[in-house]
Amino acid sequence: MARSLLTASWAWGRGSRSTCRPNTDMVRAAKQPKRKKARKKTTRKRSTAARKRLTPRKEKRGLAGEELLLDLDTPELRPLAEQVRELGGAAIGCYREPFSGRPLLLAALPLEAVEATPFQRDLSPTHTKRLAQKIEESGSFLDPLIVVQGTEGKFWTPNGRHRLAAAKVLGLRQVTVLISPDESLAFRILALNTEKAHNLRDRSLEVIRMARVLATRNERVRESDYADQFESPALLTLGVVYEQERRFAGGAYHPFLRKVDRFSSRTLATSLRQREGWASRLIAIEWEVARIVEELRERGFRSPYLRNLVVARINPVRFHRAKKGVTKPPMEIGAALTRMAASARGFKTASVRERDLALVAAVAGDGED
Q1: Is 311 a domain residue?
Q2: Can you list the alpha helix ranges (DSSP code H) found in the chain?
Q3: Residue 21 lies in a domain
């Protein structure tokens, strides 16, 4: 009897396990979304890796070896070669640039025949001395300066100010140069400038100086026509600010400007006048921010991120997230500056806590100034 009960119990258990299989399937189905999430995470990792991968272009571009060769008598370069000789230099050779095929003249020029473009960033004496020292140690001045036709019979270098200054420190008689007959290169080479890393102030000042030169050369040119050369409309506005306040904390305001500042379709001269008004309003806002920061210090706060915290708090578009493909600003810059100024005037320092500073410090990263 006992054995039959055990047998029946065992049989019932097997049957119960069999009948519970649908429940097991339900459990598996419930776990399925977790697997999908894991797959999505893997996909994101793969897409990130794909973005970082450098894939060579399949079809070849540019010129072949013999196509690069040119004679010094090439009509496009003959006037430049004559000008070089008149200035006391020497035309060494010429060739076509391998990407676009534009002609370039390799020459030697006296230092007094070359000057930096008027809109280029300010000279750094420290960087110049260090560069001259390294050239002295290596015993070689290898990199030719890129130059274009300038004013008063001289040549402009749009990205070689520090190498030119280092050559003067070293007492060189002449420097090697690559001369392009395309004068507009002086305004397009900013994005290729890697001689010395730009900080935000250097970039902004170089862009605004370039804009002012272009505005005088052609009164009808529109600001948007030079969007590629200017890189960012925020750099134009900050450039005007830096012209007036060299110690302006542009890094704190740059995220705000990137969201609301756009290139104008009006003439460059008109747009620059408008940006001068925006710059004055930004400087006035910074005065209020400086007052708030001082009050926070009096309350005992000690942090290099006090200004970042205050500017983030009064930023009217700080929570806006741009959608892909949408270029319209979340708020017009004039209205945004009005809101920002009002928020600065009504800022309550009592609302600031230590944990707020810790959060700002965690996301701030290295400053651009």
Answers
A1: yes
A2: 2-19, 21-52, 78-86, 125-138, 161-170, 185-188, 200-217, 227-230, 233-244, 250-260, 268-298, 306-314, 333-345, 354-364
A3: no
Nearest to 202 by CA among 123, 311, 260: 123
One domain for residues 189 and 207: no
Residues 6 or more apart whose CB falls under 8 angstroms from that of 349 comprise 292, 295, 296, 299
Query: Domain residues for 138?
Result: 66-196
- Which backbone phi and psi does 221 adopt, to 5 degrees? -70, 140
CA distance 264 to 269: 11
Q: What is the pLDDT of residue 34?
A: 53
Amino acid at 33: P
pLDDT value at residue 9: 46
pLDDT at res. 116 = 87
Residue in 82, 74, 73 with CA at minimum distance from that of residue 101:
74
> Are 209 and 180 in the same domain?
no
Per the domain annotation, does 39 fall within a domain?
A: no
Return the higher-pLDDT residue of 43 and 330: 330
- Whether residues 174 and 202 share a domain: the answer is no
Do both 128 and 207 map to the same domain?
no
pLDDT surpassing 50 at residue 233: yes
The structure's pTM equals: 0.58
